[in-house]
Write a structure and sequence with these properties.
The complex is a heterodimer. Chain A is 73% helix and 5% strand. Chain A is mainly alpha-helical. Chain A is flat. By secondary structure, chain B is mainly alpha-helical. A two-stranded antiparallel ribbon of chain B has the order 1-2. The longest helix of chain B has 38 residues. Classes of the chains: A mainly alpha, B mainly alpha. Chains A and B meet through helix 2, helix 5, strand 1, helix 6 and helix 8 of A and helix 1, helix 2, helix 3, strand 1 and helix 5 of B. Chain A: It is a multi-pass membrane protein. Chain A: It comes from Thermoanaerobacterium butyriciformans.
């Protein structure tokens, strides 16, 4: 999985995860509070940090930004196009079966704000996930006193996702190479077989995992050594500065 | 005007088949107020689900591993492609299958975990919209699927019908909930919430009805294969009775 690979190999891997989380979330909140200029600034800022500092290839970053694009386009279009009462307020209008559809300036301004805000918040998320491995995020959650059973389920699920992903990929390749997905009927049959065998494998593996853990004195708790990070004051000052600059320029621009 | 309409229809047709890839509400799309409201709305269900899970894990510690695998299974399922009747591809939500296999309470917690990983690993959905997505995909969908399944079985309907209806209606209601969440956050200028809800429903209905049917068919296939090949596991999960009849 693309994002997971980069989260372990980027140049900001050794930065304390709490710093990265703080930076991403504070900026996210600013995106909600302030308007479009702040959002455009955040989009550029996150791109620069992720690409120049964390050395994620720019091509990869842009490709990732395009993933949520279809949802964004369709939802924004739905919000722009409205049923309207009087045509005088509309920029463009169109009659279909006695109903007038149209675009109003207000609709456009809502949609544009929404478009940039979404992209800005998404780029904050990308900064976080591309620089911080899931294991570190789970470690932070541990410090937030989240119930341990929930965290263990998170850890287990994270590890097993890759196991099952591999298994599913192998089954898919072998089915596909035997024309398993050649026709629609075949595809349904093959996919049904794939899912049910994946379920059986999951079940069997979970039993085996339990036996293996029992044999190693498992008493209901999975213990893992977490990586040792150190806070870097320069980074903390940098985060505070950037947030302050964003807040003050946004307030100034508002006037 | 005609040209403009054609252009819109064309773009919609171009985008519509892809929408299934990202039916989760994306990061940052909902205003902060609604993010928090949906977080609060999902919380009691997740807490109840969590308490049921921890009770059963205490009784049977093996279950923890199984739940871990179930979460991973649901994640991988959502990354597979279903061939759709209309020619486009979509991803199964696994809502119906999960609810039938693991019950609606466990699904609320598993769904939350899966949605979190989808946001962190695949950039589907997001952290701010986690509550809203959990509410539609991990709470409404599974509960509806589960009770439809039980209801049809009780009424004496055949297995395949119960499974099919559970999976496809659960799938559809997930999207109705998503439309509801989008409409209530972005009411139309004229007509307010209702107009906006109809707009979102109109678009999602066109794309989601064929997908819900595909998912229903697939779930029937999977359950049939599971009954044929892994009776014992299903009995242990309380999906099957000892004689091999669906509960």
């Amino acid at each position: 999985m693309l994002i997971d690979n980069y989260s372990y190999t980027n140049r900001m891997y050794n930065v304390h995860p709490v710093e990265k989380l703080l930076f991403a979330f504070l900026t996210m909140i600013l995106c909600f509070v302030f308007d479009i200029y702040t959002n455009i600034a955040v989009i550029i800022l996150m791109f620069m940090i992720t690409v120049l500092k964390a050395k994620i290839p720019g091509k990869v970053y842009i490709k990732l930004m395009l993933i949520p694009f279809s949802f964004l386009m369709i939802s924004v279009l739905t919000i722009i196009i409205n049923v309207i009462g009087d045509k005088s307020a509309a920029l463009i209008s169109l009659d279909i079966f006695e109903v007038t559809l149209g675009i109003t300036p207000k609709g456009i301004s809502t949609a544009v704000t929404l478009f940039f805000r979404t992209l800005a918040v998404v780029s904050c998320l990308y900064f976080l996930v591309l620089t911080t491995p899931v294991v570190d995020i789970i470690d932070i959650l541990k410090k937030l006193k989240i119930p341990s059973l929930f965290l263990e389920l998170l850890q287990l699920t994270y590890r097993l996702i890759f196991v099952l992903f591999d298994a599913a990929g192998e089954v898919y390749t072998s089915q596909n190479s035997r024309l398993g997905y050649a026709t629609l009927e075949n595809s349904y049959r093959s996919l049904g077989l794939l899912i049910s065998s994946l379920f059986i494998k999951s079940y069997k593996d979970s039993q085996d995992l339990y036996v293996a853990l029992e044999a190693r004195c498992y008493n209901g708790e999975l213990k893992v050594i977490s990586k040792d990070y150190r806070f870097c004051y320069r980074n903390l000052i940098f985060i505070v500065l950037i947030e302050l600059v964003l807040i003050s320029t946004s307030i100034l621009l508002r006037r | 005007m005609k040209k403009w309409m054609l252009l819109t229809v064309f773009t919609l047709l171009l985008i519509a088949p892809q929408i299934a890839y990202s039916m989760h509400i994306m990061e940052g799309f909902l205003p902060l107020k609604w993010c928090i409201i949906w977080d609060i709305a999902s919380l009691p269900f997740v807490v109840v689900g969590f308490m049921t899970i921890s009770k059963s894990v205490k009784k049977n510690p093996k279950l923890k591993m199984l739940l871990g695998f179930a979460g991973a299974f649901a994640f991988v399922l959502s990354a597979l492609k279903i061939p759709s009747v209309t020619g486009s591809c979509s991803h199964p939500t696994g809502v119906g299958l999960g609810a039938i296999l693991f019950g609606p309470f466990a699904m609320s917690v598993l769904g939350l975990i899966v949605l979190l990983f989808q946001a962190l690993l695949l950039a589907h959905g997001g952290i701010t919209t986690l509550g809203a997505n959990t509410f539609s995909m991990a709470i409404v969908g599974p509960i509806v699927s589960y009770y439809i399944f039980k209801g049809v079985k009780k009424a004496g309907g055949p297995n395949w019908l119960a499974v099919f209806l559970a999976a496809s209606i659960g799938d559809l209601l997930t999207y109705v909930t998503t439309s509801f969440q989008l409409a209530i956050a972005f009411p139309a200028e004229v007509g307010g919430f209702t107009a906006s809800f109809l707009k979102f429903m109109g678009i999602f209905a066109v794309t989601q009805v064929p997908l819900a049917i595909s998912e229903g068919l697939l779930t029937v296939l999977v359950i049939n294969l599971l009954i044929a090949y892994s009776k014992e596991e299903l009995i242990e999960l309380n999906v099957l009775e000892k004689e091999g009849k669906l509960v």
